[in-house]
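Here is an idea for our session: we take a single protein and study its fold together. To get us started, please write out a protein record for me. Once you have written the record down, we can walk along the chain together.
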Amino acid sequence: MKCALVGSRFFAASVFEALRKEEGIEFTSIVAPAADDRLALAAKAAGIAVHVLANPKMVPGEAIAEGTDLIIAAHTHARVSDEALARSRLGGIGYHPSLLPRHRGIAAVEWTILEGDAIAGGSVYHLADGWDAGAIAAQDWCFVKKGETARELWERALAPMGLALLSKVVQIARLEGRVPANLQDTTFATRAPMIRRAVVLTEEASPTTTSLVVSIVGADRHGIVSSLAERAQRFGANWAASRMTRLAGEFAGMVHFEVPHENADALAASLRGLESSGLQVVVTRSNGANVPTSLRVVELELVGEDRMGIVSNLTKMLAERGISIENIHTDIIRSGVSGKQTFKVEAHLLVPGSLSVDALQKELGTLASEMMLDIALGERQVAGK
């Protein structure tokens, strides 16, 4: 059976590698958003020509080879046009990481977590008018672990599920010459639009309070956070912001307290008293200065396979453009699908007003493409501008 694959990134490349090893499956068309996308690179390595989309939001008819039996969409945000579908004998199918018609949209896994769903799932559906609205060809489900993130759910269960479901439907199409179709019940349809991440700015401290920034490092154990919270409550302090983590068995954290002026010294002394329990504590007073109106606050997120040079290349590029890093957080996530380590960078940036967000997006996009990273960029106006 002759198949066309439209997709991007790791999941599409995984679908390509898995299906081309199956009996009776031949790929005659590979459609990717960029020449250096993982799917495009995998296809080129296998000696298959790639159609790179001129318009990342639409798959034209000429992208699909004549005589195609089935179009498969895997991790693509491009709509497969009617002209493209008309070139396929059995039409097209796509994988959506939800139990359709629930969570139709681009951020299905994120909304599964946000809605607190106890059960998640995946659906192979017919490509048709309307996003994720086509008839269902196959579905499966899984439990959502307590405290699981969207990325963890995707890597642990939903990506492997997608591979299995697509393989199942493609083999049915090959052997029976048809694709199963069960209409979605729109009564249960919900939307999962893109989640716009924005910087959440802490309100300016009241003139009646003092800001204390506390750094704590020490051997990890139960009760550290509780001890901080108890002292804050005792002296009437507000826990304004924090960042805490466990690194190589050590606890490391920073907390911003807003405390009444008259209690600031007493709270600082109480916090330093934690040193007797083996912790290293540094307490600093802050004026909580506002961001200058000549700067914009921008949130940056980069995600990709762990490799040397991500942070150094990123920070060098930002420094060259006069961009300050207000704070940065990095993490390594071990993937249950690929077996590789994923490196994640989250940073709050102070960007000069003379540098447009579009220009920054373009330059960061070039860096992300070079290092095969996914990028998200969001902006929020500073209060008072």
Q: What stands out?
A: DSSP finds nine helices and 17 strands in the chain. The chain has three domains: 2-188, 209-286, 295-380.
